[in-house]
């Protein structure tokens, strides 16, 4: 099979196979260990994955521009950038309308699907036993944050309650206060739990509404449940991987050839990072004219970290400026790893919700790159 056909196969299959691998890991009982590494509020998820289209745009475009030069064919280089910009614009618009919003006041497609299949922003704070509902926010931190927000809203609108609601209002505020102060279950009876939940739901929708998107619901401490919720993470990671692999086809061969041609230079820069150990330096200070103890300590303890930092800066600048394809490949591996974690984390979504997120990204990127396949094959 030619290298172009291999790349085609990888481009088409890597995301579905990654999701399938996640399911197999779960099926064979290895999912629990992987799920333990997953942190919704972690730096990687909050700063990189959730803002992944920004990072992917930045690194992708830096590579497209850095590797655009085709020797002696500036016209072809410009045509390629124009084609990449067209593909990128289509995928960015699709990313936006599927995850951010279709229009002012109109939620994104993934939330419209959810709402039209019966989904809602719930406030099932207490379960039937009068304890805080474990499914409400999924973690103690998020539950405490949500309850504090609900408590603030109810307190802010305490005077807006009519006589009938006043009693329910004070019981709701009191129950939430109990949980916030003791971080344990409030003394809410089973019969009262449903009434308090319903009151909190009505108040939050009244004062903070409309809560018709997952972002608004999450922002105001609600629980987005009850409908078919396509996985935004599966959609986003698939879209990003398909874009990076698709554009890698344009410049990948040239970029990797350039990287291979400079392999020894890069290897030398990497080994210099480790060539600064204090013992190694101490031994080198011996020699024919041994140095004073102070001078040897300076050479062994101060100079190595400085030399290491300088070597790291040189290596970073070399990769960022001359071999950004390394950063692109690192980003690709990160998104695939996050896609695997999302597939393993079965408690977040059903398989159908994963598949709908995958198909939503896969179909659009598949059409975009299939249309340009002929032009890409000539690359
Ligand atoms: C010569 C031509 C040059 C072309 C110029 C291109 C330059 C490229 C550089 C930058 C362009 C950037 C354009 C895109 C901007 C993207 C901005 C962002 O990504 S900001 C992040 C906004 N989103 C968020 O903050 C996260 C919101 N959350 C979500 O979207 C969802 O949580 C989720 C989709 C991440 C997960 O879904 P859910 O099911 O968990 O709700
Ligand atoms: N790989 C991953 N790492 C961390 N959190 C993840 C994740 N995949 C999904 N999640 C979290 O699981 C929830 C459902 O994700 P999605 O709907 O995008 O598949 C989201 O929670 P939040 O939206 O409350 O942050 C998301 O942050």
From TrEMBL:
Catalytic activity: (5Z,8Z,11Z,14Z)-eicosatetraenoyl-CoA + H2O = S-(5Z,8Z,11Z,14Z-eicosatetraenoyl)-4'-phosphopantetheine + adenosine 3',5'-bisphosphate + 2 H(+); hexadecanoyl-CoA + H2O = S-hexadecanoyl-4'-phosphopantetheine + adenosine 3',5'-bisphosphate + 2 H(+); (9Z)-octadecenoyl-CoA + H2O = S-(9Z-octadecenoyl)-4'-phosphopantetheine + adenosine 3',5'-bisphosphate + 2 H(+); an acyl-CoA + H2O = an acyl-4'-phosphopantetheine + adenosine 3',5'-bisphosphate + 2 H(+)
Record keywords: Endoplasmic reticulum, Hydrolase, Lipid biosynthesis, Lipid metabolism, Membrane, Phospholipid biosynthesis, Phospholipid metabolism, Transmembrane, Transmembrane helix
InterPro entries, alphabetized: FIT (IPR019388), SCS3 (IPR046400)
Enzyme Commission code: 3.6.1.-
Cellular component terms (Gene Ontology): endoplasmic reticulum membrane
Positions annotated as active site in the UniProt record: 233, 349
One GO molecular-function entry: coenzyme A diphosphatase activity
Keyword Membrane: yes
Intracellular or extracellular location(s): Endoplasmic reticulum membrane
Enzyme class (EC, first level): hydrolase
Chief subcellular location: endoplasmic reticulum
Membrane-related topology note: Multi-pass membrane protein
An annotated GO BP: phospholipid biosynthetic process
Protein origin, superkingdom: Eukaryota
Presence of keyword Transmembrane: yes
The family this protein is said to belong to: Belongs to the FIT family. Fungal FIT2B/SCS3 subfamily.
The protein's role, per its UniProt record: Fatty acyl-coenzyme A (CoA) diphosphatase that hydrolyzes fatty acyl-CoA to yield acyl-4'-phosphopantetheine and adenosine 3',5'-bisphosphate. Preferentially hydrolyzes unsaturated long-chain acyl-CoA substrates in the endoplasmic reticulum (ER) lumen. This catalytic activity is required for maintaining ER structure and for lipid droplets (LDs) biogenesis, which are lipid storage organelles involved in maintaining lipid and energy homeostasis. May directly bind to diacylglycerol (DAGs) and triacylglycerol, which is also important for LD biogenesis.
Listed name of the protein: Acyl-coenzyme A diphosphatase SCS3
Taxonomic source organism: Saccharomyces kudriavzevii (strain ATCC MYA-4449 / AS 2.2408 / CBS 8840 / NBRC 1802 / NCYC 2889)
Gene: YGL126W
């Amino acid at each position: 099979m030619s290298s172009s056909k291999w790349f085609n196969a990888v481009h088409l299959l890597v995301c579905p196979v990654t999701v399938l691998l996640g399911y197999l890991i779960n099926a064979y009982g290895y999912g629990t260990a992987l799920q333990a590494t997953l942190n919704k509020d972690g730096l990687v998820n909050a700063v990189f994955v959730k803002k992944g289209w920004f990072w992917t745009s930045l690194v992708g475009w830096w590579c497209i521009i850095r590797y655009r030069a085709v020797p002696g064919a500036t016209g072809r280089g410009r045509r390629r950038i124009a084609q990449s910009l067209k593909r990128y614009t289509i995928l960015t618009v699709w990313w936006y309308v599927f995850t951010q919003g279709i229009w002012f006041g109109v939620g994104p497609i993934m939330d419209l699907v959810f709402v039209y299949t019966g989904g809602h922003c719930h406030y099932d704070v207490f379960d039937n036993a009068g304890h805080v509902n474990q499914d409400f926010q999924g973690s103690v931190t998020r539950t405490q944050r949500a309850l504090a927000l609900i408590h603030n809203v109810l307190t802010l609108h305490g005077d807006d309650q009519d006589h009938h609601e006043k009693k329910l209002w004070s019981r709701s505020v009191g129950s939430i206060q109990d949980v916030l102060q003791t971080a344990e279950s409030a003394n809410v009876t089973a019969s009262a739990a449903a009434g308090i939940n319903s009151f909190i739901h009505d108040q939050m929708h009244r004062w903070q509404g409309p809560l018709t998107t997952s972002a608004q619901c999450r922002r105001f401490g609600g629980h987005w449940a009850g409908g078919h919720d396509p996985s935004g993470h599966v959609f986003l990671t698939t879209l990003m991987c398909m874009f990076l692999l698709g554009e890698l086809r344009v410049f990948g061969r040239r970029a990797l050839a350039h990287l291979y041609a400079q392999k020894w230079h890069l290897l030398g820069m990497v080994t210099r990072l480790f060539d600064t150990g204090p013992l190694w330096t101490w031994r080198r200070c011996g020699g024919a004219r041994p140095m004073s103890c102070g001078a040897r300590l300076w050479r062994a303890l101060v100079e190595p970290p400085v030399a290491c930092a300088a070597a790291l800066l040189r290596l970073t600048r070399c990769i960022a400026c001359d071999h950004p394809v390394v950063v692109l490949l690192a980003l690709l591996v990160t998104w695939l790893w996050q896609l695997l974690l999302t597939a393993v984390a079965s408690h977040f979504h059903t398989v159908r919700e994963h598949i709908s997120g995958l198909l939503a990204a896969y179909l659009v990127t598949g059409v975009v790159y299939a249309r340009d396949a002929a032009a890409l094959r000539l690359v």
